[in-house]
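seq:
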Amino acid sequence: MKPVRAFSLLIAGFSALIFAGSIAQTDNNTKILRYQVDTQKSLLHWRCDQHYGTVPFEKGYFSLTNGQMEEGSFLLKMDSLKDADIDYKLMRDVLENILRSKDFFNTANYPFASFEIYSSSFNHHGKGYIQGDLTLRDVTKCISFGAAITHNKGGNIHIQTDSIRIDRTNWGIFSLSPNHVHSEESFIVSDTIVISLSVVADEE
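struct:
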């Protein structure tokens, strides 16, 4: 073998080793943490017109890779939806039953809503956004929203989202919609529902 060719092969082999070592180092520096949602401390908050309330979590998890949320799933108990603004129990029960009925969230057939996370971007202050698929009544739509991640001293994480405005008609909920029915104004319900998530999660 000619000296020049042997030297070229030696350089190529040495470069490959350096490149492989660089990849290994990158992989070793990747920090992946998985968290389980604490369903006793986490809630979805909702508001529509003058009414507001909560929806509890059934379960959920997410993973942080070097501080970025790359995957996760939240399951919400729509059949446990609560109103929080009406003091009179009978009237509160009436509203909750209407919202659970087939005209709205149809919780008898669709007791759960879900949100699947597939991307996020957070800065070193824990501020950023989350993008994923929200499924209501077996209809799935992509949404994105701002959020903040706080690392607490106890080792858990708190995620607080910004207010998220969704149009219920995009999920096939047309009952009493001002744009889809003709009725007296007192029987009209806004198409816009404002939601936010407050999630507390513990590292596995």
